[in-house]
Design brief:
Two copies of one chain form a homodimer.
Chain A lengths: L5 H9 L11 H15 L6 H8 L3 H7 L3 H25 L4 H18 L4 H6 L5 H27 L8 H13 L1 H4 L8 H12 L5
Pfam families (chains A, B): TetR_C_24 (PF17932)
Keywords (chains A, B): DNA-binding, Transcription, Transcription regulation
Protein name (chains A, B): HTH tetR-type domain-containing protein
Chain lengths: ~210, ~210
């Protein structure tokens, strides 16, 4: 990624020497990489595999994404950007802290289910380029800090039992993130249902 | 392990052709394997490495534990046996379901912290011999069923908000198991403290 946001890199690489504008969408690239990981683990990440899924030539994809590390970086950017956007929206919304907490839990369960196939790549850190892993750590800390602020407010307002905020935040995040380990579409348990049960577990009388 | 419990295999292998009784304790072997995994990941599991940690010759260890798969099997047996023993004790104890639930949470957090280094070997399944992985699955299902029964009783008695028992059980287990991902001794957050916060989160007024 060499410092530039991938959108700019894509723009720049898109029209070398008068070629037609390249129309590969970075979100589509992120989906393709995620698909490779879901089907074959992090070892399955490759330009060739991603090009096949995107139905473009390898040469075309190489111009946009020169290395495997860049592919992982694009998946990372998309995963974290989506999550940050949803979280910012929740935090800025004009609602009670109780509702914000419920929305954060819903969002977190939904993200765990959506990203269940490639979360191990981030959490395990193996096969992850060092710069992406570092950015993941920075992002995780900021992300946890936002959760932390909401939990703290919930305790101050009596929505949650007063307790150590850091530990409470991590327990709540863990409860939601572990869903990525046991969720199976074939079980027929809906994401919304899981989130509702999680909310009723920590906020009795809310279901 | 070829079907025999490791204790019997150890006993049988211990005195070939009039040799003195072998005194390697299987719990010590389990600790040695766990230590290898904690320090170097599952790739670090080897007879040579375990022999070094146990301060016995490779030949001695080979007689007791012929393959790397047997080493992993011994670690697995120990981890699950300990946990089953503690859980059975909790379930059989003459106490309220509220107290049983609290004890299960404490036990689960404690286990997550103790086994944090090698839990990824079981949960990831990579590098795990097929028969050990299968036994792990069978064991996990039985283990979850015991938790499930306690959660169901807690809901029947109004200790927990009535909700889908399977989902509630998995959320509770996840909250505890994810501690293995974030626990760092250097943070100075005690295991007992984490368990207490977890209890106060789902059973307000209990702390």
């Amino acid at each position: 990624m060499s410092g530039q946001p991938p959108e700019d890199a894509a723009e720049a690489a898109a029209r070398p020497r008068g070629r037609p504008r390249m129309v590969i969408d970075l979100d589509a690239v992120a989906d393709a990489v995620a698909g490779l990981v879901i089907d074959g683990g992090d070892k399955a990440i490759s330009i060739v595999g991603a090009a096949e899924r995107l139905d473009v030539s390898r040469a075309t994809l190489y111009r946009l994404v020169p290395t495997k590390e860049d592919l992982v970086g694009i998946m990372f950017e998309r995963a974290t950007r989506q999550q940050t956007e949803v979280m910012d929206e929740v935090i800025r919304s004009a609602t009670t802290v109780r509702d914000k907490l419920i929305r954060l839990i819903e969002m977190q369960v939904e993200a765990a289910v959506r990203m269940r196939g490639y979360m191990p790549v981030f959490f395990g850190g193996e096969g992850l380029p060092a710069d992406v892993f570092e950015r993941w750590h920075v992002w995780s800390r900021e992300y946890e800090a936002t959760w932390h602020a909401c939990v703290e407010e919930a305790m101050a307002e009596g929505v949650l039992e007063p307790a150590d905020v850091v530990t409470t935040t991590r327990l709540l995040l863990g409860m939601c993130l572990w869903v990525s380990r046991w969720f199976r579409p074939e079980d027929g348990i809906e994401t919304e249902h899981i989130a509702r049960v999680a909310v009723s577990l920590i906020l009795p009388g809310n279901a």
